[in-house]
Amino acid sequence: MKIAIIGTGYVGLPTGVGFAELGNEVVCVDKQAEKVAALKAGVLTIFEVGLEELFQKNVKNQRLQFTLDTKEAVHDADVVLIAVGTPPNPVTKEADLQYIYAAAEEMAAYLNGYTVVATKSTVPVGTGDEIEKIIRGKNPNADFDAVSLPEFLREGFAVHDFFEPDRVVVGADSQRAKAIMAELYKPFVGKTELMFVKRRSAETIKYASNAFLAMKIHYINEMADFCEKAGADIFEVAKGMGADKRIGNRFLNPGPGYGGSCFPKDTNAMACMGKKYGAPLSLIEAAIRGNDLRKTKMAERILKAVKQIPSAKIAVWGLAFKNGTDDIRESPAMQIVEQMLKNNADICAYDPKAVTNAKKVLNDKVKYAQSALEAAKDADVVAVLTEWPEFAEVNLTELKSIMKTPKIVDLRNMLKEKNPQNEGFEYWCIGKRDDA
Ligand code: NAD
């Protein structure tokens, strides 16, 4: 099939690469000239495990192309996938749909023959109706259907999740659109469930899923706080809870709060939708408030560990919002660093992938190291903020020998198994009282 992808970011690019790998002809369009130039020159613009090889292969065999020109991408396409950003409105926190609407306007005149316009971006319920209106308004003769095709991929696992999704949800209200989507997802038949639902249900499924996962994270974080006070151990509690199949053992790792480009904005957008439709979503609202506060509490926890030390040096391990990605959007690590900077903290940070992005925000307000150990040299405390597996591999004897004061605040509970206390560290993790 011929596929156009509008927006070549964390969703659009892996999706384009994935569909090209499955044998489709894919043209990706983006507004950012540098991004398109880099991709045309064979340079990947994001980091995703396993993406490079598939990208190079499909660029070479010309199944994957890039352009700045919407017309060039769209005029031949059987399916146009919209994968532009839907950031939060800074004031109202609703999803800002300006990029979606602009994409619909820009493509309208060039749709040629029957085309399915499918929205991969996360959009509020009813957005499909608006896309339809915009395209019809600009091109009354266009033969198309607007479909909702929510994306569930996880950053860091985008390639894996493209080829092995838990489910594919298609919100289509016409038989013709369903047939095209069934054709597009034919390679997935037998591997995953292809769910056809109403367009408004598909739009809601995405937000309802993300908000549920965010609440699950917030729940275990609050439970960890409770364990710290009550003398229980969150590891044992989470294990005991997770063994119940109705609960499941995933998303039960306590940490510094949920972040990333999706959960914070999607919980806010869902809460706004609840208000709009007169169906308040009080659990989601509580999770939003609690998660926002958590980052400040975590920064205070690190600063408390060194409060007796004048001009303490803090080593930060991890800036990305989670491991496996260079994405720092709404990263709890970045928010904790910024909070500590307000308290004039002296910080040296290391992240295996996210430093380039972090520098655009933090500039020279922190120092940057090339390795975890380099960041920890002469430090008074190491703060583990992102769960990069390499942090669990660190040799504690070596770490202790290069630090000024052997203290670790482990907000990802990565070193707990190694019992840093036995190596002479003062060690704080999440969800367990020091003396318990
Ligand atoms: P992104 O910011 O990484 O990429 C969006 C791209 O769209 C940018 O490169 C931008 O230049 C381009 N763009 C904007 N308007 C355009 C236009 N009119 N024509 C061509 N290109 C245009 O965003 P993302 O992280 O890929 O997210 C995209 C959508 O997918 C969002 O709605 C997001 O909520 C959703 N989503 C994201 C993830 C994720 O893990 N990042 C997962 C599931 C769903």
Notable characteristics:
globular; Rossmann fold; 43% helix; 2 domains; alpha/beta; binds nicotinamide-adenine-dinucleotide; 436 residues
Which small molecules are bound? nicotinamide-adenine-dinucleotide
CATH topology of the largest domain: Rossmann fold
Number of individual domains: 2
Shape: globular
Largest sheet, described in full? Answer: 6 strands, parallel
Could you tell me the radius of gyration in angstroms?
Answer: 23 Å
Give the full name of the CATH homologous superfamily of the largest domain: NAD(P)-binding Rossmann-like Domain
Question: Portion of residues in helices?
Answer: 40-55%
> Class of the largest domain in CATH?
Alpha Beta
**Distance N to C terminus:** 60 Å
Secondary structure category: alpha/beta
How many helical stretches? 17
Q: How big a fraction of the residues is strand?
A: 5-15%
